[in-house]
Design a protein that fits this description.
Blueprint: H1 5-12, H2 30-45, H3 49-52, H4 68-72, E1 75-81, E2 91-96, E3 101-106, H5 112-118, E4 123-124, E5 134-135, H6 136-159, E6 164-170, H7 172-185, E7 193-197, H8 205-212, E8 217-222, E9 243-246, E10 259-262, H9 283-286
Parallel strand pairs: 3-6, 6-7, 7-8, 8-9
Antiparallel strand pairs: 1-2, 2-3, 4-5, 9-10
The structure holds 2-acetamido-2-deoxy-beta-D-glucopyranose (3 copies).
Length: 304
């Protein structure tokens, strides 16, 4: 099916009301909070040119100063990707010898504003489960780099079999990360962890249910961020559960009590219930524990 901006705006008007708060939220511990903040720095690092257009062995750095704990760790890029496919999927695969992790990070698109106003959403069958459909753009972004990443990943894991595989992304990169995690978990990496910050919806209910049933999903939203509200529920898309809904204001330090853990593929008590996606709501998109996309380079179209 084909959807355009007009569909978005007209259908969006129908969903802007929150339902009664009837779900009991689980508390987030301070240990979890520090994990959430730490992996957000890896997502932030995927926006820095020095990491996604890198050389093997490069230590991860963030020119915007927004990944200090990653910079303190013993890291090295194993493989990076950008500018090589029709979808311009960008990111890196890195080793973290301090935290015993292999990190696969996907960069968000520079043109997320364009994406919101111009994109058409199509379904494709990712062949992950019966009746499952994925959003075509995100799925192709992953499959365009899947073979090359899979080979390097297998070699890296063979050398570090005690390390965790952690897949991260922010914005459109979180959408790609979600589908990559779902796919890789079924292909030899069942306990891969997913930290998806500000992800759009990427799945129909059957695929969302399939991913939700896999372990180690951490999907974050922040107040009225417009990006996780798209593609619309009215188009048949839903989210992976649970949602870690960050309620603190833009630019504010996030504490554990600011995060609500909400279950369900549609939950009106979180980001979904904060109204129709608005272009004026972008400040919330940039702030996931820190200015996540602070490394977006100069000369790129939409620095919002
Ligand atoms: C990507 O390709 C375009 C066109 O060839 C070039 O102008 C741009 O600098 C490249 N970007 C990166 C990050 O390599
Ligand atoms: C990597 O390993 C997985 C799981 O064993 C396998 O399915 C996949 O084909 C391998 N990829 C490559 C490129 O060898
Ligand atoms: C948040 O920080 C950004 C970037 O430093 C700034 O442009 C914006 O005005 C700040 N917003 C608030 C609400 O303080």
């Amino acid at each position: 099916m084909r959807f355009s901006l007009l569909t978005v705006l007209s259908a969006g008007a129908a969903i802007g009301h929150a339902l009664p708060r009837n779900l009991k939220a689980r508390e987030v511990s301070t240990d979890e909070l520090s994990q959430f903040k730490f992996w957000a720095q890896y997502a932030a690092a995927s926006y820095c040119n020095e990491n996604y257009a890198s050389k093997p062995g490069h230590k991860i750095t963030c020119s915007a100063g927004n990944c200090p704990q990653v910079e303190q760790a013993d890291t090295s890029i194993v493989y990076d990707f950008s500018n090589t496919t029709s979808t311009d999927t960008a990111g890196y695969l890195a080793l973290d010898n301090t935290n015993n992790a292999i990190v696969l990070a996907f960069r968000g698109s520079y043109s997320v504003r364009n994406w919101i106003s111009d994109v058409e959403f199509f379904y494709t069958d990712p062949k992950l489960c019966d009746g499952c459909s994925a959003e075509l753009g995100f799925w192709s972004s992953w499959t365009n780099v899947r073979d090359s990443i899979s080979g390097v990943l297998n070699d890296t894991v063979a050398q570090h079999s005690d390390y965790d595989l952690v897949i991260v992304g922010h914005s459109l990169g979180a959408g790609v990360a979600t589908l990559a995690a779902a796919d890789l978990r079924g292909k030899g990496y069942p306990s891969a962890k997913l930290y998806a910050y500000a992800s759009p919806r990427v799945a129909n209910p059957a695929l969302a249910k399939y991913i939700t049933a896999q372990p180690n999903n951490y999907r974050f939203t922040h107040i009225n961020d417009p990006v996780p509200k798209l593609p619309l529920i009215a188009m048949g898309y839903v989210h992976v559960s649970p949602e870690y809904y960050i309620t603190s204001p833009n630019n504010a330090t996030v504490s554990a009590s600011d995060i609500k853990v909400l279950e369900g593929d549609i939950n009106w008590n979180g980001n979904t219930g904060t109204g129709v996606p608005g272009l004026g709501d972008f400040p919330a998109h940039h702030w996931y524990f820190e200015e996540t996309d602070g490394c977006k380079g100069p000369g790129l179209p939409f620095r919002v």
